[in-house]
Amino acid sequence: MSPPVRHAVTQLLAAVLLSACVASKPAAESPRASATGPAVVSSSEETTPAPQDGEAGATGADASAPGPETVGTPGASSGATGSAPAAAPDGHEAPSPGTEPPPLEDPLAQGIPTPGDLKRLDFRGGEPRVPVRLMEGRTEVTFSPRGRMRLRFGGPDEKMLDAAAGTRWTVRVTQGSPAVLSARVQLAEFRMADRAGLQAALESWREKGLAVRAQVLGSVYGIAGKVIDNRRTQLLVDEVLTPEAAGRKQAELLRSHGVQTTLFEEVRTPSKAILEVRDEAGVVVGMAQDRLDAETPDGAGFDVRQVEYGVGYDFHGFEDRTFRGALQLVVDRSGQLAVVNVVPLEDLLKGLVPAEIFARAHSEALKAQAVTARGEVLAKVGIKHLADPYLLCSEQHCAVYRGRTGEAASTTAAVEATRGEGLFSEDGRLVDSVYSAVCGGHTEDNDVVWGGPPDPSLRGRPDVIGPVGAHPLPASLERWLTTANLPAACRLSSFAQPSKFRWEKRFTAEQVDTRLKRLGVGRVQALALTDRGVSGRAAVLTVSGDKGATQVRGELNIRRLFGMLNSSMAVVEAERDAGGRLTGWLFRGGGWGHGVGMCQTGAIGRAEAGQRYQDILRHYFNGAEVAPIY
Questions:
Q1: Are 384 and 398 in contact (CB under 8 A)?
Q2: CA–CA separation, 175 vs 139, rounded Å?
Q3: Contacts of 144 (CB under 8 A, 6+ apart)
Q4: pLDDT tens across 466-513, in order?
């Protein structure tokens, strides 16, 4: 560990010791879980900066007035899992006109709440236990313990059932009722430090006549002297809608402003159901309200029959799978059954890393992937699935996870060799260790892809093996994309795929008109990719049609418009027939993915060139150092 990191860690350990006063606060002040969820999963706080001088207040009790911005636990939720309930229209205390937003506080100066205090994760055994959804929307599920099982029914009597290994049990939903959800449209997301960006966005949307508010998600806590801080601020339309009405609002914002949005959902009334437990003969042996917990004290785990995977994809299917850890059988938002695997983080990684990288890759690349995946999981906790009874899902939306069924000896060895390790910046904070499949020879700055302030650990840089100066850079994108034999790590890797390093994709004019119809510009006449980052990836697409013009912002939004382009490191040109009539569009590009952080195929190339995993990660994350989290 470098001296700056060691010094920062010492300071952080002192800060964590201050959290004893936080941990001793009355239990009534701690966040509480909903009836359908695990222990509280995140901190969610509404924080709306004050109106500036002369700015008119929003409707109701002044939606532009701030609630106090605090770090830590929200108030008790009225059934919402992982999200504080939205305040009533009169629920904000308005400050004096012209009050500035409170300064951003350094959590280190406040004393970091301990994991046991925040209860966002279960840290028994010295590492976090993560609730991961295996499947949901089921009427019944069949499973078998691989060792002696204890099944807990909950309730005031805490009824339990003990069963032998290999016995088969079926849980069936009866009398189910879905949760009542509300939704706000999410316009943008900002890093906590980007106060200026948030304020500018708030003012811009208010000038357009839209009432907006900011809400903080995520958490900050200390583990063994390290700071885990994944908080971020989301910019939301202030209007609370039904999910259906919110979908219509999204379409309206896309037509009027060309902005792609997402939904921020909250639970108003929790889902409910009775869960019946049946033995192999089909006899009901017990019932529970909303949730059952199954564990094997010896850690043998469970076999789960017909696990559904790939929902919404062409590879959708069902597979019998085996899992480490415990199971929770809980009621999902639809009033049906969800199966949740509560698994130690290291065991989660054993079933996750093989799905993220080739298990036959060089061992040093596998170690690099294990470290980045560990940081990625911690970065997502409390950010996704806020209205669901789990923290993460096992699909592409979070991270593909097949449990013990998907494990490979090589990736398991990499996880064990790097146990508890994460990447830390010079100030001792956990790096958001993102990664993509193929960078195309140059990684990208985080702010180009996702907006917000530049992250010193996520700076784009050439990813070539050998001297950089002898080769063109993406500033001359046409030359960059056509340079032969570029010694990029992701091209030299034995796992390189030429069609992902450099690629072409054609669309007919009719296909583009159909895909971009929602933008309301009519028949598309011109496309232009601009606001490029250091890798040549574009952040803005300008679309001109016979009925007007608009812009689409955001690297992912651009790619989604065209059925997930490999990347936005691309140039686009119109194709015309002999008479000059527009017939189609040709995209020529490089890379596969957003390009920020570690290039997975490039990491393999670097490992094959003799680099250790610490060196690989130091390259991709601008000098960040590997250090233990726990």
A1: yes
A2: 11
A3: 166, 167, 168, 169, 302, 303, 305
A4: 877 778 889 999 999 999 889 999 999 999 999 999 999 999 999 999
Confidence of residue 125 (pLDDT cuts 50, 70, 90): low
Give 191's pLDDT tier (boundaries 50, 70, 90): confident
β-pairing, 392-393 vs 570-576, is unpaired
Q: Sign of the C-alpha dihedral, residues 120, 125, 130, 134?
A: negative
Q: 31 vs 371, which has greater pLDDT?
A: 371
Q: List, in sequence order, the alpha helices (H) in 391-457.
A: 409-417, 446-450
Q: Which of 82-86, 279-283, 348-352 has the lowest mean pLDDT?
A: 82-86
Place of tokens 């296909």: 511
With b for 16 or more beta-carbon neighbours within 10 A and e for fewer, the 165-197 pattern comes to eeeebbbbbeebebbebbbbbbbbbbbbebbeb
- Supply 614's token pair: 């610490």
Please give the C-alpha separations between residue 87 and each of 37, 46, 209, 213, 347, in angstroms, as whole numbers: 21, 8, 22, 12, 39
Under DSSP, the state recorded for 452 is S
Residues 6+ apart with CB under 8 A from 469: none
Task: State the Cα–Cα distance between residues 568 and 558, nearest whole angstrom.
Answer: 7
Angle 274-161-121 from CA coordinates, rounded to 5°: 75
Q: Give the gyration radius of the chain's Cα atoms.
A: 25
On whether the CB atoms of residues 369 and 613 are closer than 8 A, the answer is no
Higher pLDDT, 31 or 281: 281
Domain range list for the chain = 120-178+271-419, 183-265
Distance (Å, whole) CA 449 – CA 377: 20
